[in-house]
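Example 3.2
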Amino acid sequence: MLDDFLSREFPPAVPLVGGLIGRGERVIIAGDPNVGKSWCALDMALAIASGKPWLDTFETTAGPVLWIDEESSEREVQARIRMLARANPIASGIPFGVAVGRGIRLDDQQRWAVLDAM
């Protein structure tokens, strides 16, 4: 019931991207095709992995990132990261993993073991 839900106490969110996303929260970035959703998400992921403010505005809590891309090629993802790094240099050794075209599906519990291994 709604009253039960509203009476529950939740711990405060641990910020991941200040004022926008808390650690452990799920986020959907939606929009028409070719408007920059992937670029936006990739830039945010790199900011989190490096602990830098995203868009020079939103503080991030540094942490490891696994970029999963089931639509692009490795070449395309590498090119995008290099372009983003030219605009906002990335330190070597940041905790940023890349998995492209691995058939990862989040609706299959057996695939979660694959993610955990990564």
